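Notebook p. 47: complex prediction with pyridoxal-5'-phosphate.
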Amino acid sequence: MNAPFSAPLSAHELSLIKTRDAAHYLHPFTDFKALAKQGSRIIVRAEGIYIEDAEGHRIIDGMSGLWNVALGYGRRELADAAYAQMMTLPFYNSFFQTSNIPAAELAETLCSLAPPDMKRVFYSNSGSEANDTIVRAVRRYWQLMGAPERDIIIGRHNGYHGSTMAGASLGGMAGMHAQGGLPIPGIAHIEQPYYFDLGGDLSPEAFGIKAASWLEDKIQALGEKRVAAFIGEPVQGAGGVIIPPATYWPEIQRICDKYGVLLISDEVICGFGRLGTWFGCQHFGVRPDFIAFAKAVTSGYFPLGGVIVSDRVSDVLVQKGGEFNHGYTNSGHPVGCALALENIRILRDEGVIDNVRATLAPYLAQRFKSLGEHPLVSATETLGLVGGLVLSKNKATREAFDAGLEVGMICRRHCFDGGVVMRAVGDRMIIAPPLVITPAEIDAMIALIRRSLDLTLAELTQKGIF
Ligand SMILES: Cc1ncc(COP(=O)(O)O)c(C=O)c1O
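Predicted complex, structure tokens below:
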């Protein structure tokens, strides 16, 4: 455990905050009853790649917050950009033919970073809202094209596209669909390209083609004149860092082109350098019609999201559309946009993404792979600065633990207590550290993960599970 170095709250103050939190705060994606019993870990400040809790423990943030703190914590330039904008124009809306300087500048900048033939942007506050916007824009597009019956959007099981009604419907999380009658009408799903689980005897390349063919099967089953769009994350994040074989996305592109189906790249995690390119679709060589973005566009310092739209779609919306009856009070918020411009400037000027691609990604790949030697770990994989490993009961046969044992959560607890944040998705343990992590910090993170795996193994052995 990292030693406490400067507990910022007294024991009494901490207990008051925890009591308030448990009594009044309904946390997202949380079992309220369990949390009220156990209490929360209160995070009070952060610097670089480290967060610090109220008891003074320094913890390596192996998840960049929720995948979003690309530049790490404590970047004064980002705070200064927000402050300067707040003092100049803290808010004005973009409804009714008004705009603001940062929103217009950022839209142009984002289009310059995106693949060719994408020249317009719609802003939201979050990734979920970006995907809601896309559902509305896709259906509006096909209406304007004289094909309103083309209204089905195909997503993937275990994909994640947010928590609003449309976002959760596009996603394929069974637990979310089970609560409240989702998905909404007009959404279908295909199986995910998860080689570890579904690859069988196929090579990764052959499996990539096969997994993409499930899209073609679905289009044919639904009727090609009914299918409006396909949505996927370049690499599935919340689903457990599912990295598709290199053959998958180009084949998806071919199928979308063949049937005229719009292609949506949900870049809420992969955007802004996570895979070593500005957008994940550029890594995989895909030309989407929509890019959903959020999170790292501001390194998480301000809520901002949006959609970059292809000319194929936006020319129709602009030229034939009339009023698009959709928008958010905070669409194009000047503070978020000013902060995003500064975030992008730093990513560019400091060569952060080039460094991810050329140096950090290969280094992380090599170090993360070494965790595969651990008796609990049956597979490891990384791409850019995301990684996932699988905890298995039997390394050789890849036999899984009983889900009810929640082995991933046991490992996650040891990680957090030991000074590194990893996320557990079932028994897949995942990381997505800040893009400014150094090779020495990667070493420190891997050492902490290895020790957490040892402690997990010891606990499982002691309980007779392993
Ligand atoms: C790929 C993807 N899309 C959409 C979202 C939803 O974004 P938000 O939580 O900002 O609404 C997330 C959040 O993790 C995500 O990972």
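Notes: The mean pLDDT is 96. Residues 77-349 form a domain with the Aspartate Aminotransferase; domain 2 fold (CATH 3.40.640.10).
Next step: compare against the earlier run before touching the bench.
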